[in-house]
Amino acid sequence: MNKKLIDFQQHGDSRGQLVAIEESVDVPFEIKRVYFMYDTTPNVRRGYHAHKDLKQILFCVHGSCKVHLDNGYETEEILLDKPYEGLYIENDIWREMYDFSQDAVLMVLASSHYNEADYIRDYDQFLGYKGIKKV
Ligand code: TYD
After folding, report:
1. In whole angstroms, what is the distance from residue 71 CA to residue 39 CA?
2. What tens-digit pLDDT sequence spans the chain (135 residues)?
């Protein structure tokens, strides 16, 4: 699976914690976009897509949520509950986000601007795109 959990350095002292993220140093792509989700409705599951090219790093900077990853062959469930932990997801991976705590803030760093043409929103099309299933 093309994913990696990255522990970013915490610059903690008696005042609290601080995490810095630098393009091309801590993140293996140019950061073209940042977006975040919050006030997520209880029991919502969202995502349900893969990206043809986009690479992303997901941080649950407050609260917790889970991420379901699927590369067409195997699946994985990942708990994000540490603000300094980033989940790097390469392209061609189906993702769903769920079990958001009421206070969850899920922040995403992305390698390109929003482009609907980069999305695969149908699971069978995803398997077809990967050459796993004929559609
Ligand atoms: P959507 O793709 O449905 O979110 P999810 O990650 O749960 O699949 O995005 C929700 C709305 O926000 C949709 O109307 C598209 C818009 N949007 C942007 O305008 N820019 C963005 O960077 C993103 C991620 C979404």
Report:
1. 29
2. 766 999 999 999 999 999 999 998 889 899 999 999 999 999 999 999 999 999 999 999 999 999 999 999 999 999 999 999 999 999 999 999 999 999 999 999 999 999 999 999 999 999 999 999 776
* Whole-number Cα distances in Å, 96 to 24, 65, 123: 26, 11, 11
- How far apart, in whole angstroms, are the C-alpha atoms of residue 96 and residue 76? 11
Residue nearest to atom 9 of ligand 1 (CA): 47
Q: Which domains does the chain have, with CATH numbers?
A: 3-10+23-129 (2.60.120.10)
Q: List, chain by chain if needed, residues with CB within 6 Å of any ligand 1 atom.
A: 33, 35, 46-47, 49, 114
Task: List the catalytic residue out of 11, 49, 62, 68.
Answer: 49
Asked whether the whole model's pTM tops 0.85, one would answer yes
**Does residue 49 carry a catalytic annotation?**
yes
